[in-house]
TrEMBL record:
The protein's name: V-type proton ATPase subunit a
Pfam families associated with the record: V_ATPase_I
GO CC terms: vacuolar proton-transporting V-type ATPase, V0 domain
GO biological process: vacuolar acidification
Function: Essential component of the vacuolar proton pump (V-ATPase), a multimeric enzyme that catalyzes the translocation of protons across the membranes. Required for assembly and activity of the V-ATPase.
Main location: membrane
Superkingdom: Eukaryota
Localization: Membrane
Membrane topology: Multi-pass membrane protein
Parts forming coiled coils: 98-125
Organism: Opuntia streptacantha (Prickly pear cactus)
Keyword annotations: Coiled coil, Hydrogen ion transport, Hydrolase, Ion transport, Membrane, Transmembrane, Transmembrane helix, Transport
Similarity-based family: Belongs to the V-ATPase 116 kDa subunit family.
Gene Ontology MF, one: ATPase binding
């Protein structure tokens, strides 16, 4: 394949010549052959097994293996992402054996799964002990405060009873007060943590289920804790439930389980509490150390994987695509060779044959692959060789429709006409410089940005960076022609040709202006911008220029239809489509363009609208002061006659000539002597559709009538459509002028630094947001419409299909 160049070549004018090729490949060298063809990227395989499902194909097992390896690689990437590690990009090495890689990936996955399982268990235990520690702390505080309060209350009661004791006190009361402690009832308790959002419901259910025979005490934790079950941070409360009886205990345990409350054992003995706290702290320290060591080991394993994972992923993608392609091949009955069919450019024949020979040599095959060109009537795919500069322009054309095989490609002309028409609407060399600086940033950093994942809008802008660059350059040019820099005119190419003869011309009017110098050498004279009475001249200039550009581009489209017809040897289209269309368009709008140029050259005051309208209404009337040249009246009558003749010329001859050709073909097929079977077979293949479908003259005639009406009305509407160039140019200029006059100059007039800064900020924001973004998008879309509708509909069918070769270069853009 030719080396990539930076500028368009003649390869873009018509698609590459293609050929249908059959490859007969020995089984032992099939894998290596497909590998070389994938590296070359110039062969589009046809599926020779369309009736088989993916599971019935020969290499379905190998594809499943590749999919399993791809799953393991995705698992490794997920683990690296969780660990905050990045993969390293190393040069691809395809010498790794697929079987060895499969075993290695399996071992690494098993090791990581085991490490993750152990880490989860350890983390679960650590979180449980952490909760246990909180329960010991908070519950211990509750018991300590309760015990202190109980002791103080008991002492107070004893002192009170001692003071009131007398001989009159009943002996029975003393007996009641001195009951055997072993016969007293003892309360049980359950402690743990409950999610704070469930605490109220938890308390309510406990109360209802036990009929109020429990005592619940809760302590709110200041910070969330990691739940051992879910592994997420949750706000929780420490609770202690006091109860009496085994039945109440069972109910409380079930309620705790229902509310996800984790229960932990606790002792009311302070000494045992201290022992339990010491043991829990030791366990936490031990678990923390073990978890940290496990994380370090896992990070080391993931780092080792990260140094090769990109290489493994690329290799698995390659192998998977190779087996997908092998499944498209047909297995010979002897099962000793595979048969492939596909399209390739003619220029790549030598490269493909060299690849086949190299694959045979590398696989130590005794039999070489066979390269055989097939004859076919099938329409080949369309392939244009593009580069980073021309690809974006080609994408603009392909978005409308892919060119038919060997059809004239509008992409070549779009490289110039698209940015130029954009610039006609966007003409301001200040705004053009801003666009150029923005796109130069993308161009200078294209190597770095091309390897990064960008956002949708940024990626779209980056992909069209060279289109934007051309738009910016042409905008600078048209801005110099319009003499507009953020709507402000400058005397860049010399002084204005006009000067004030008195003070009356100083206030934005033209009264008193006289020409004192030669005409301004390039573009619009700066004085014209400052005079509102001269504004109609600028409007007229832009409007007439829009008509000239539109007629020129439509003529280019008709001329390209001639080259298409000549290339495909379609004489009917040359004589009964190209010539009458060219005559009709130029008899009306070509003549209008001529009148515009003549009026500019002669400085005449003739009314062109009057001339064109009365050319139809009163063609024989005297032109009077609207006459621009001698013989104009006779010339107009001639053009009008040609325009009227060209309409039936487009409509009638072609259907009758097609009918005549069909009858001659049918008669020749019926009575011709069959010389040999091969000639007869070729004849039948070529005219198969004509034999099975009868010629419907009415359908052909109606079809031609529609085309004729469409062209006649389209010539008028398309010419009017090009006036959008004038309208958007005027809108862009006026918006820019409003922002300059009503924002920047108005803020400047206040003589206040704060107001000036605010004015500058507003001016920059309005210019960037409205003129550099919205107006750019608007002009882009209008230029797109002019190319798709007004230009391409004259010659471009766009009903082809793209050449999509099997290539490893496209694997990185595909999602797994």
């Amino acid at each position: 394949m030719r080396g990539e160049t930076c500028w368009p070549t003649m390869d873009l004018l018509r698609s590459e010549e293609m050929q249908l090729v059959q490859l007969i490949i020995p089984t032992e060298s099939a894998h290596r052959t497909i590998y070389y063809l994938g590296d070359l990227g110039l062969f589009q395989f046809k599926d020779l097994n369309p009736g088989k499902s993916p599971f019935q194909r020969t290499f379905a097992t190998q594809i499943k293996r590749c999919m399993e390896m791809a799953r393991k690689i995705r698992f490794f990437k997920e683990q690296m992402e969780k660990a905050g590690l990045l993969s390293s990009r190393f040069p691809n090495n395809d010498n790794v054996n697929l079987d060895e890689l499969e075993v290695k990936l399996g071992e690494l996955e098993a090791e990581l799964v085991e490490m993750n399982a152990n880490s989860e268990k350890l983390q679960h235990s650590y979180n449980e002990f952490l909760e246990y520690k909180l329960v010991l702390l908070k519950a211990g505080e509750l018991f300590h405060s309760a015990l202190s309060g109980a002791i103080a209350l008991q002492r107070e009661n004893e002192a009170h009873q001692l003071g009131e004791k007398s001989i009159d006190s009943p002996l029975l009361k003393e007996q009641e007060m001195t009951v055997d402690p072993s016969k007293q009832g003892r309360l049980g308790f359950i402690s743990g943590l409950v999610p704070r959002e469930k605490a109220i419901a938890f308390e309510r259910i406990l109360f209802r289920s036990t009929r109020g025979n429990v005592f619940l005490k809760q302590v709110v934790l200041e910070y969330p804790v990691v739940d051992p079950t879910s592994g997420e941070k949750v706000n929780k409360n420490v609770f202690i439930v006091f109860f009496s009886g085994e039945r109440a205990k069972n109910k409380i345990v079930k309620i705790c389980e229902a509310f996800g409350a984790n229960r932990y054992t606790f002792s009311d003995d302070p000494r045992k509490q201290q022992e339990m706290m010491t043991e829990v702290n030791a366990k936490l320290s031990e678990l923390k150390t073990t978890i940290d060591v496990g994380h370090v080991h896992r990070d080391n394993v993931l780092s080792a994987i990260g140094s090769q994972i990109e290489q493994w992923q690329h290799m698995v993608k390659k192998q998977k695509s190779i087996y997908h392609t092998l499944n498209m091949l047909s297995l010979d009955v002897t099962k000793k060779c595979l048969v492939a069919e596909g399209w390739c450019p003619v220029f790549s024949t030598k490269q493909i044959q060299d690849g086949l020979q190299q694959a045979t040599y590398d696989s130590n095959s005794e039999i070489g692959s066979i390269f055989h060109v097939l004859q076919t009537k099938e329409l080949p795919p369309t392939y244009f060789r593009t580069n980073k500069f021309t690809s974006a322009f080609q994408e603009i054309v392909d978005a409308y429709g892919v060119a038919k095989y060997r059809e004239a490609n509008p992409g070549v002309y779009t490289i110039i006409t698209f940015p130029f028409l954009f610039a006609v609407m966007f003409g301001d060399w200040g705004h053009g410089i801003c666009l150029l600086l923005a796109t130069l940033y993308f161009i200078m950093r294209e190597k770095k940005l091309s390897s990064q994942k960008l956002g949708d809008i940024t990626e779209m802008t980056f992909g069209g960076r060279y289109v934007i660059m051309m738009m910016a350059l042409f905008s600078i040019y048209t801005g110099l022609v319009y003499n507009e820099f953020f709507s402000v005119p400058f005397e860049l190419f010399g002084r204005s040709a006009y000067s004030c003869s008195d003070a009356s011309c100083r206030d934005a009017t033209t009264s008193g202006l006289v020409k004192v110098r030669d005409t301004y050498p390039f573009g619009v004279d700066p004085v014209w911008h400052g005079s509102r009475s001269e504004l109609p001249f600028l409007n007229s200039l832009k409007m007439k220029m829009s008509i000239l550009l539109g007629v020129a581009q439509m003529n280019l489209g008709i001329i390209l239809s001639y080259f298409n017809a000549k290339f495909f040897k379609n004489n009917l289209n040359i004589w009964h489509q190209f010539i009458p269309q060219l005559i009709f368009l130029n008899s009306l709008f070509g003549y209008l363009s001529l009148l515009i140029v003549v009026k500019w050259c002669t400085g005449s005051k003739a009314d062109l609208y009057h001339i064109l309208i009365y050319m139809f209404l009163s063609p024989t009337d005297d032109l009077g002061e609207n006459q621009l040249f001698i013989g104009q009246k006779f010339f107009q009558l001639l053009l009008l006659s040609l325009a009227l003749i060209s309409v039936p010329w487009m409509l009638f001859p072609k259907p009758f000539l097609l009918k005549k050709q069909h009858e001659e073909r049918h008669q020749g097929q019926t009575y011709a002597l069959v010389i040999n079977a091969e000639v007869s077979l070729d004849f039948e293949m070529e005219h198969d559709t004509h034999e099975h479908e009868e010629f419907e003259f009415s359908e052909i005639f109606v079809h031609q009538l529609i085309h004729t009406i469409e062209f006649v009305l389209g010539a008028v509407s398309n010419t009017a459509s090009y006036l959008r160039l004038w309208a958007l140019s005027l809108a862009h200029s006026e918006l820019s002028s409003v922002f300059y006059d009503k924002v920047l100059l108005l803020a400047w007039g206040y003589n206040n630094i704060v107001v000036l800064i605010i004015g500058i900020v507003v001016f920059v924001a309005a210019t960037a947001g409205v003129l550099l973004v919205m107006e750019t998008l608007s002009a882009f879309l209008h230029a797109l419409r002019l190319h798709w509708v007004e230009f391409q509909n004259k010659f471009y069918e766009g009903d082809g299909y793209k050449f999509q070769p099997f290539s490893f270069a496209s694997l990185d853009d595909e999602d797994e």
